[in-house]
């Protein structure tokens, strides 16, 4: 004989109300825990930045270039850990003291520290960064090269500084998009700062970077783009958990093999864009030219 099928246990209204009550109680505590984590990280980072300023002001004037790179590498690695970021390296990073022009897509202010945590370089940044409290002083002390955006004369000046750095055997890092994105697509690359590499016969190291959440999905929690202020971006990063930054070091090439900076820029852009599409096949392929304007981002494609 077959036993009669027992109906599933019914949940009383009291059970559902109890669950709702527990969820209601848990929400404030979750917010409090997030706030405590943010404040704790902010305090540790403030101390770390102050320590970095001390190193820049006291030790750097007496240090050789290689020793400075060691300090920058260690400091950047410690900062990424304080931010709760995991770094995943794909490919072979370049050595720090070789004549190399590093070109990477740009998503966040975190990019610089993530890249320096693996292989140090002198970065090119917008002139506004120099006026940021503490961070600006730190960037100046570590040899950051600043450019006034939209000023062609300043581009000529900067190219001379890049040539001097490359000829001295340094690595220089440039974000050829000229701005940040939310990571869902790439902006068109600009070629103005690639001429020094051709003149010096430098090695070009393309890098594709992206940020992933704890589930391995693309994340824009670190994205610093559009009208997001630095304070807002910092607060988002401080509250994030389980973020991984992937650094894909693509095959290096010689700038001397390119006819001009435009063909070199296109070659690098195609290489980085191909990696972007291979890893994110559902994301848009942004190929709008600067003259026609840059299309709006597609936040729906990101977590």
What's the Cα radius of gyration? 23 Å
Number of strands: 8
Oligomer: single chain
Main sheet record: 8 strands, mixed
Q: Given this structure, which CATH class is correct?
A: Alpha Beta
Overall domain count: 1
Structural class assignment: alpha/beta
Secondary-structure blueprint of this entry?
Blueprint: H1 13-59, H2 65-82, E1 85-90, E2 100-104, H3 110-116, E3 122-126, H4 135-141, E4 145-147, H5 152-167, E5 171-174, H6 195-200, E6 203-212, H7 230-238, E7 243-249, E8 253-254, H8 261-279
Helix pairs in contact: 1-2, 1-4, 2-3
Structure, briefly:
With about 300 residues, this protein is an alpha/beta fold. Helix content is about 45%, strand content about 15%. Strand 3, helix 4 (about 135-140) and strand 4 form a beta-alpha-beta unit.
Description:
The structure is a single chain. This protein is α/β, with parallel strands linked by helices. The chain has a single domain (20-291), classed as Glycerol-3-phosphate (1)-acyltransferase. It is 43% helix and 14% strand. It is built from 8 helices and 8 strands, in the order H-H-E-E-H-E-H-E-H-E-H-E-H-E-E-H. It has helices at residues 13-59, 65-82, 110-116, 135-141, 152-167, 195-200, 230-238, 261-279; strands at residues 85-90, 100-104, 122-126, 145-147, 171-174, 203-212, 243-249, 253-254. Strands 1, 2, 3, 4, 5, 6, 7 and 8 form an 8-stranded mixed β-sheet that branches. Helix 4 (135-141) links the parallel strand 3 and strand 4 (145-147). Helix 1 (13-59) packs antiparallel against helix 2 (65-82), helix 1 packs across helix 4 (135-141) and helix 2 crosses helix 3. It is globular, with a radius of gyration of 23 Å.
